[in-house]
Amino acid sequence: MTIISSIKQYSNQHQAYALINGLVFDSLTGRNNPGQAVVIEGNMIRAVCPQAELGSDIPQVDISGQTLLPGLVDVHVHSEDWHAPLYLAHGVTAVRDVGSELNAVLDRRSRWKDSASAPRLVCTGPVIDQPGSTWDPMTLRIKNPQEARSAVDQLVDAGVDQIKTYVMLDLSCYQAIVDQSHRRGKFVVSHLGRFVDARQATEAGVDEIEHLSGVSEALWWERNQASPDWIWMKLWADVDMERTNRLIDLFMERGLRLAITRLVWERMALAADPRLMAHHQRQYLPPALAGFWEQYMPHNLAKRSYPQGMSPPTRAARCQQAAGMAIFTSQLAQREAPILIGTDTPLLHLIPGFSFQDELVALWACGFSESTLLQAATLGGAQALGLEDVIGSIQPKKQADLLLVAGDPTVSLAAMQQIQAVARSGNWQNPADLMQQASQYVLHAPQHSSGRLNDTY
Known about the structure:
The chain has 457 residues and is of the alpha/beta class. It folds into 2 domains: 3-70 and 393-429, Urease, subunit C, domain 1; 72-384, Alpha-Beta Barrel (TIM Barrel), CATH 3.20.20.140. 37% of the residues lie in helices and 18% in strands. It has helices at 3-11, 84-89, 102-112, 145-158, 171-183, 198-204, 215-219, 221-226, 232-235, 241-254, 262-269, 274-277, 287-294, 315-335, 354-364, 370-384, 431-444, and strands spanning 17-20, 23-26, 31-33, 36-41, 44-50, 60-62, 66-70, 72-77, 92-97, 120-123, 127-129, 139-141, 163-165, 188-190, 208-210, 257-259, 339-340, 402-406, 419-424, 427-429. The strands form 5 sheets. Strands 3-2-7-18-19-20 form a 6-stranded mixed sheet, with helices on both faces. Strands 13-14-15-16-17 form a 5-stranded parallel sheet. Strand 8 (72-77), helix 2 (84-89) and strand 9 (92-97) form a beta-alpha-beta unit. Helix 11 (262-269) runs antiparallel to helix 14 (315-335). The protein is globular, with a radius of gyration of 22 Å.
């Protein structure tokens, strides 16, 4: 009998059971705890205790050679229904949608809320921005600080969980959004742009910055302000460690969270890489999304629209940008600055679930340890979503959002590619079955895009 079938015979009967003889990842310390039993009953973790303290009435499931972890959290996605099985199959049991049409994402959040077949969903609804950027279907546009505050109120009253700002805001509007969001008790996520850099945003009190946006403008503020155009990619070509460390000092002093989304920049730089064009993950790519990705190929760059003052980026500029970001990210690792794991799925060459696992490896290559990344992927993500009392660590009274992997991922992230079972609220599923569901979607997916575009680069 397989582990998952052993577990299901108890969970389907709503009977308490204990997982024993495996490693248990402690996301508070970043270490594995051997010799611990985790007792699960229904959708909850009932107890975590030494195996010797288990009562004789508790059925036991042997997970020798495996590690039990909290469910993973992707803090930066643009969700669609077909993503759900792919997320779960890769251990992602919670996601944050940071830019979608309001009614659609609120409806999806409601449908996914109690579903064993989808991750938990936290959402910002549309982004708030001023004229000059490009994504009308998912942008709430404002013109002044008063309208900025009204936009926050409109979204909060509609039921969003958090607020996201976008790339063309001036400083007065940006400060108004952050202030009003905090007045309404909402966490603020920012994709910064031309007129507000990462230092200004941090000083304004932003909670989280995506993509390292606004960082090059903060590092080279004098060049940014002197330029008539938006030259943020070119600014990444110069590395100055004194400026870098001063900015990181500020981030750490203010407790800023950074969702680096390292992989999206690598794949933008290598858009037409034949290895990516022929990658096995593409078998889960719906035809309509393939058409959207085609817009990012080098021969189509001049045909795309870009935010005001931003020229179509060359491959050389993308590569320099990715290299500069890698150096900055490696310094974040050296300084042990807090980070989060986000993917920007389903942007170019980023398939839900797969991209999360690939992002872990991309950040590891910049110097972060396995344990640090696993903490960021679990408890750190739960904290960013405001769900740390519900998920993110294996503790009594938390939801049983869990995954089992073969091996020890604190020693090698290769273990994260060996997911044996995933639980969403105590409902265990076989990753192979979830991948089969994803395959069926591709077979029956629409051939043409609805026209919704997900993010701007």
